[in-house]
Design goal:
This protein has 646 residues and is mainly alpha-helical. Helix content is 59%, strand content 4%. Helix 6 (191-201) packs parallel to helix 8 (225-241) and helix 20 packs parallel to helix 22 (490-505).
């Protein structure tokens, strides 16, 4: 997939020719950002992520009770305070079950190609392990799910499947009485034990005396479980870049730098500091913390312009220089040439203050950030940090639409190419957010089904769906990639198609679901791309022993065989070659013959193509294969076959 998109040239400020065809010079930068982000957030249902979690998992209070309830009733509902690790506990309960049948996947939380968000029993396969995360749903969704849960649970038992549900703690008063017996409350595990376990798996084993300091104890007493894993990741990275004589105490201090709470200090400083320019500079330093002075100055000037702040009437040389202005707000240029506040944690407190206590300018802050990121000289590493900071504030203040607006704008037809990684990053950060992830999955669905979505945005959606969404919500990623593959042409369309095929092939359940979707699409006849996708995806022997798979294959082949022979002759040859193996011959040829649907013209075309395949390499096995195919065609049409018909 990546080879189809071109080359990445770091810090190019104009067009760069890297070969024939469209130039997508920043595609690889976007891909690298998303992969790094995914590696830091192993909370997805992908097996590699679950294995990572399982190795570091500390069972919380109530875990044994939850495991017993899940085994006895096939369903468990997990409740607990936010940040107690409910989702991880649910994943681990399912992960620990036998995986000899079925697969572990999360139930969709958006109305993809359907009119309802209620539970769908078609999502249940034999032996499946299902996760349903309701932790951030609204009242109507929660009530609808509970209404559908009874029938859904009956189907679970019939299929030998299991379901773990993460309940919305804030909606506990809406829980139905009959479901309370299935509910288990999960308690917060020991934060220090979680920390030690994570550290041990990174090869870090500090003495107990270095784990009892006040800053760490204070942090662990409040931090959600997911933030403790983030702390360990920072400690590991600090260890990797620190001098050899520095030990755990230094790594920990550096890793806790951003956790210092300076909220009260910032509030007091801003109360006494009423000069607009200084406030603009303060926020610019906070958002672009650790960048060059020129970046900070451009950011401050841009914010003043966005807010229509009156210019300073004094001549420029009569005003203070940037060094003096930075000093006035408690910032300085460090020896590495980058601007930082003198007080640790001050930058985060400034950002929190502006977004919290100036809610009337949040839209202007979005526009300001858009202007700042348009500057091509800003390095990729600085852009990545700034995007993460802005996204954190937008999500914290319940403004996910600011991120989707930026992604749309940064991928418009005339948008600079260097904004592609930024657009991909804001969408990935939104998808990973526990509270607003559903908003972004729905928004991406709407974009993927719209004919008005630009080619630049489509390119980013392919990347985000295949790299980020596929790890946590592969079913929904499959649906969106399918829509993109149907509606996109050229290099980007080829990328969407390859990403879709790779995802569908990665798992038996996704393969079956993709065949079902292709069967429905081919039967409707609306999307010619579905036939091409089927011919490339369908494997003549994969899961062919399942009746439901054969039914989908028959529907798809029926639509394909009605097209010109040259469009399917080569794939047919692959199927006939597979049927030379007597272990698969009966089922493979049963599919092909049934696909003719008693249509004499279609069966005649199929038989003639089979004869050409036989004549291209005459052999006993090929002659036997064609003979069996003819008998099955005759039987399907109610014609008595004769041994010497071929």
């Amino acid at each position: 997939m990546t080879e189809a998109f071109g080359s990445y040239v770091h810090e190019a400020h104009g067009s760069v020719n890297s070969g024939d065809g469209p130039q997508f010079n920043f595609y690889y930068a976007a891909q690298a950002r998303l992969r790094e982000q995914a590696s830091r957030r192993p909370r997805a249902v992908a097996k590699e992520d679950r294995d990572h979690l399982a190795a570091r998992f500390v069972p919380p209070r109530g875990m044994r009770h939850a495991r017993n309830r899940l085994e006895e009733t096939h369903t468990v509902l997990l409740d607990g305070l936010p940040g107690s690790g409910r989702r991880t506990a649910a994943l681990m309960l399912l992960h620990d079950l036998s995986d000899t049948r079925g697969s572990l996947h999360e139930l969709p939380d958006t109305s993809d190609d359907t009119a309802t968000l209620a539970l769908d029993t078609q999502d249940i396969g034999d032996g499946d392990r299902l996760l349903l995360d309701l932790s951030e749903v609204d009242e109507s969704r929660y009530i609808a799910v509970q209404s559908a849960l009874s029938d859904f649970r009956d189907s679970l038992v019939r299929h030998g499947a299991h379901l773990a549900v993460v309940l919305p703690h804030h909606l506990g008063y809406l829980l139905r009485g009959e479901l309370k017996r299935l509910t288990v409350e999960i308690g917060r595990p020991s934060a220090q034990r979680v920390l030690i376990t994570h550290l041990r798996h990174e090869g870090i084993e500090p003495p107990q005396s270095e784990l009892g300091g006040t800053p760490l104890t204070s942090y662990l007493s409040q931090a959600p479980m997911r933030d403790i894993a983030g702390l360990v990741d920072r400690i590991r990275r600090c260890r990797d870049v620190s001098p050899a004589d520095r030990g755990f105490s230094h790594w920990l201090t550096e890793s806790l730098v951003d956790q210092h709470d300076q909220t009260a200090r910032v509030a007091a400083d801003l109360t006494s500091q009423r000069d607009g320019r200084r406030r603009a500079l303060l926020l610019s330093v906070a958002l672009f913390h650790g960048t060059a002075p020129g970046t900070v100055l451009r950011g401050a000037n841009a914010l003043l312009g966005i807010l229509s702040h009156p210019p300073d009437p004094l001549p420029r040389l009569d005003r203070a220089d940037l060094h003096a202005e930075l000093s006035d707000i408690g910032a300085e240029v460090k020896p590495d040439g980058r601007v930082r506040f003198r007080i640790v944690g001050y930058d985060r407190a400034v950002r929190d203050h502006f977004w919290t206590f100036l809610p009337d300018i949040r839209r202007q802050l979005r526009d300001w950030f858009d202007v700042c990121l348009a500057e091509p000289s800003l390095a990729q590493s600085d852009r990545k940090e700034a995007v993460a900071r802005f996204a954190a504030q937008s999500l914290r203040t319940a403004r996910p639409e600011d991120l989707s607006w930026l992604a749309h704008r940064w991928t418009a037809d005339k948008a600079p190419a260097h904004l592609v990684p930024d657009a991909a990053q804001v969408l990935a950060l939104g998808l990973d957010d526990e509270q607003h992830g559903r908003y972004f999955r729905q928004q991406i669905y709407d974009w993927s089904t719209s004919t008005e979505t630009g080619i630049g945005l489509r390119r980013v959606l392919v990347l985000v769906c295949s790299t980020t969404m596929a790890r946590s919500h592969p079913d929904q990623a499959l649906v969106r990639l399918h829509h993109l593959a149907r509606r996109t042409y050229g290099v980007v369309g080829a990328g969407a198609r390859q990403a879709l095929l790779d995802l569908a092939r990665s798992d038996h359940r996704l393969y079956r679901r993709m065949l079902d979707r292709l069967g429905a699409g081919i039967a409707q006849g609306q999307w010619g791309e579905d036939r091409a996708l089927f011919l490339e995806l369908a494997d003549p022997v994969r899961l062919v022993g399942y009746r439901s798979v054969r039914d989908s294959l028959i529907i798809c082949w029926n639509g394909v065989l009605r097209r010109p022979v040259e469009s399917w002759a080569t794939p047919l040859a692959r199927w006939l070659t597979a049927s030379e193996d007597v272990r698969h011959r009966d089922l493979v040829l049963r599919v092909l013959s049934a696909a003719c649907d008693t249509d004499v013209r279609v069966s005649g075309c199929l038989y003639r193509a089979a004869l050409q395949w036989q004549h291209s390499d005459p052999s006993v096995s090929r002659a036997e294969t064609v003979s069996v195919l003819l008998r099955k065609i005759d039987t399907a049409q109610g014609i008595e076959s004769y041994p010497l018909a071929v």
